[in-house]
Task: structure prediction
Amino acid sequence: MNKLIFSISVSLAGLFFICPPSYSAQPRPANDHEQFYHYVAYEFNEPDLCEKISPRAFLTNENERYRAECYYDVATHYGRKDLCAKVTPIYRNDSIWTGPVDLSPRGCEKRIAKGKDNVAYALSDQQKIALFSEMGYKPETLYLEGVTPQIGRIDLAGAYSMLGKKDDIMERIKKVVGESGAAVPVEQTEFLYDLAAHVSNDVSWCMRIREDIPSPASKYTSAGQDHFRDTCIYQIASNTQDKALCDMIPDRPEYLNEDYNPKDLLSVRQNCYRQIDGAIKYSNNLRYSYLIPAEEKMIVLLISLLGYPLPDIKDVPESEVGSAYLNFILELGNNPDLKESPARKRFLENVRKLPSYE
Result:
């Protein structure tokens, strides 16, 4: 009888050790606030921010508690064994990083013994902009904190990239190009046709582009060998996931090359089929945008042609604002000269004022 009781006790003890703790509520994905707390806690060595993360939150796997990850990452990065006791014993197997990670107090201490651990986390520009705005920061006055330089310049490419979001853009394009587009130089109208096609998802705008011209140079790419019209159709087909549109792309001989396997590897038409069929792997939320001219003179002409005002110094693109906020965080978190600065103290106070989660 005593032997039976002993066996049951050992079995239950083992079961308690290997099972993760139970939670009274269902796990849920970490929200933007919680991802921000993890990020700041890691960059600033401020583990108390981990406590603002709900014990139910997870990032990619509901069996991996995000609060525990937060404590683990701060502890192993800064060699803080005092935090290991707060690491919930849940086993993480994440091949994206370094393979299996023992997310437990013991695993935390073992990792610290091996030396400093570095982890890369990132927030999107949209997340940073929303969070900084919630804390009361503004991009045009951020430099007054004395941490990063002033931002804001005339960004013509950024202004052009925002044209597609304007409510009246299609009406303006139609007014400018009319039925034939003859009133405007063809080099300008073709950029507008491409813009209209991507805004409206209407491939007929692509068909107004001359058939025999290569894709022009853009702000981010050099001139291509693909035909501008072909590329436009390909992108609208991908954006709409309409494979039938691929049939509109000629299977041009110049896209074939016997040195490639398959020889039609560069065929815009065949790659259109492959992408929609899933043979070409891209992010699930991939969406092609219209071409931004490489020459600023062309951008000025097009914006003016459409009747929009040219940008002033306050019109800063999201990417620049996001980069400014990122640099602000990294400077405050890693620059030893700013360790006791009012800006750092003020920033952490603002972060702590954001909501906590149970």
User: Anything to note?
Assistant: Residues 2-18 form the longest helix (17 residues).
